[in-house]
Amino acid sequence: MQLGAPLTVPAGSLVCGDPTKSSSRLTSGFFYVIGHGLDAEYLKSLLALGHKFFELPDDTKNSIHIFKSQDRVRGYQKLGENVTYAKRDQQEVSCRIVPF
Hints:
The protein has helices spanning 19-28, 40-54, 58-62; strands at 8-10, 32-34, 76-77, 83-84, 87-88, 93-94. Strand 4 and strand 5 (87-88) form a beta hairpin. 3% of the residues are buried. It folds into 2 domains: 1-37, no CATH class; 49-100, no CATH class. By secondary structure, it is of the alpha+beta class.
């Protein structure tokens, strides 16, 4: 697969239920949100917070494991635990930010 320029989506167009917009996101796998008005320093601090989380010991990250959440959707997943299209993803994921 040849990679082109990343898909960008204006913040104002992020509307749930619009199949024309969601289908383009599904084909690219990810997208950048533009025009959101968030300060660059704030975004850098969020990125640093993410790095800080993933550097934590496994026991700490597992304290918010996805299987411990009420909806079993939000939380932490170790490498190889997330399955997409019957294939294990090689990514470490946290789908919520919590104080640590």
